[in-house]
Write a structure and sequence with these properties.
The chain has about 425 residues and is mostly helical. About 60% of the residues lie in helices and about 0% in strands. The chain contains 18 helices and 2 strands. A two-stranded antiparallel ribbon has the order 1-2. β1 and β2 form a beta hairpin. The longest helix is centred in the last third of the chain and has 28 residues. It is globular and about 70 Å long. The chain starts with a helix and ends in a 20-residue tail after the last helix. The N terminus is likely disordered.
């Protein structure tokens, strides 16, 4: 790739980094805690990274450890991280009647993971309208529940924060004591409205736009068909497997909610520390796969997993890699394998590094935490607040990599042109 082609990617990554540093600086202010004690640099960096990368892992409890100002900073970082700094910048320019430069168009295309910049203005408008509609509707739905337990002012604040966190698949909550939604594990209304926000936030704006366009399923794009297929399959499969592994310890509602939330949202209606080893494996698999491309979620993405499975099947049966009467391009297959391998590498390196620094924690606890960080999910077995500063930095790096994409990070500094020399082929024995 040429350096000019890579410039938007570099700026895209740099934009996230700058927002994280700005959030870190704001969280280090005394006003963010409401006390004379300031958050340490490493705690502030971790919380800012977790918010911008819409993860939800926390070293301090946002509900009790942060003031209203600090919570507002977190909410702003979540919104910026979910939509992308470039998308928000383009929205501001458009609302002011300004002209979008070619550079900003390329950045917005990269931020929203679009294949082309065609109809970018309409896409940005749709993103803004969809975000406002879902977050407002989610806040109203959440208020119905929170109004019964808190004062009106507190209920409004909790509802707004909860809705933004849920739609952006962040997983932060302000209920205190790292409880997440465990107090509401049997509340059908809150669990269903929250899971609805998580699901739609994880579909991606392109898919949402096609769903509300009125097109019949037959006329959906291949991308939308794959996303919907994988989303439904993972929700149903995750629910059944969690219920099978935990049995009577969790209800069907809890199994369903955790199946939805495990794909990068991070809201918990049950304690992760109480799950069986088999249950933790199910959660880790769902986290690793994650949400869909172009969404607010992380993971290797549902589309990547779909292509990997399809390619494996086509190899076994000596056929072409096809789906819904369409052949999947070879470069897309190659990209999927690259994303998968890089994700495994990041998780391996991160787990190894944390294991070296945290000998008191079990391997499964550390692996779970690293997978949760990379997939920007935010689930924790309870060890995150107890991590040393070095481990916090490692997890922060994993969250950042998972949010911007391992393939993006791996290619932003490459500038070599494609080699013109070709070599003769020779076989290697496999298997």
């Amino acid at each position: 790739m040429h350096s000019k082609e890579l410039k938007p990617r570099r700026l895209f990554v740099l934009g996230f980094f700058v927002v994280i540093l700005a959030g870190t600086a704001l969280l280090m202010l005394p006003v963010s805690t409401g006390t004379d004690e300031c958050l340490s640099f490493f705690d502030s960096l971790f919380m800012a990274t977790s918010a911008v990368c819409v993860t939800g892992l926390a070293t301090i409890d946002p509900g009790t450890g942060l003031s209203v100002f600090g919570q507002a900073v977190m909410m702003g970082l979540i919104q910026v991280g979910g939509l992308g700094i470039t998308s928000i910048g383009v929205m501001v320019i458009m609302s002011a009647g300004g002209k979008i430069s070619m550079g900003n168009q390329k950045l917005a295309k990269e931020s929203l993971n679009l294949n082309s910049g065609k109809g970018l203005k309409n896409v940005i408008k749709s993103v803004a309208h969809v975000t406002v509609a879902f977050e407002f509707g989610g806040a109203v739905c959440s208020f119905i529940t929170f109004y019964g337990d808190f004062s009106p002012e507190k209920a409004v604040w909790l509802s707004c924060f909860h809705s933004i966190a849920a739609f952006n698949n962040a997983g932060f909550d302000l209920l205190g004591d790292f409880k997440s939604l465990t107090d509401y594990h049997a509340d059908v209304w809150l669990c269903c409205s929250t899971s609805g926000l998580i699901i739609f936030g994880g579909l991606g704006f392109f898919v949402i736009k096609e769903l509300i366009s009125g097109k019949t399923p037959r006329k959906w794009s291949l991308h939308t068909k794959v996303v919907i297929t994988m989303t439904v399959a993972l929700i149903i499969g995750g629910t059944l497997f969690l219920k099978a592994t935990e049995g009577g310890d969790i209800s069907w509602l809890e199994a369903y909610f955790q199946s939805v939330s495990s794909r990068t949202a991070g809201f918990a209606s049950i304690s992760m520390g109480n799950l069986s080893k088999a249950g933790l494996m199910v959660i880790m698999l769902l986290m690793f796969i994650g949400a869909s491309s172009g969404s607010t979620g992380g993971g290797i993405k549902t589309t990547t997993m779909f292509i990997l499975v399809k390619k494996a099947m086509s190899t076994v049966f000596n056929g072409n890699c096809t789906a819904y009467k369409r052949e999947i391009p070879e470069n897309v297959v190659t990209k999927s394998f690259m994303v998968f391998l890089l994700a495994i590498a990041v998780i391996f390196i991160g787990t190894f590094a944390v294991c070296m620094m945290e000998p008191d924690f079990t391997f499964e606890q550390i692996l779970f935490e690293v997978v949760s960080g990379f997939s920007t999910t935010g689930f924790s077995t309870g060890i995150t607040p107890e991590l040393c500063d070095g481990s916090k930095v490692v997890l922060s790096a994993a969250m950042f990599t998972g949010r911007v994409g391992p393939l993006t990070l791996a290619t932003i500094w490459l500038s070599r042109a494609k080699p013109q020399i070709s070599y003769s082929q020779e076989e290697i024995n496999i298997g």
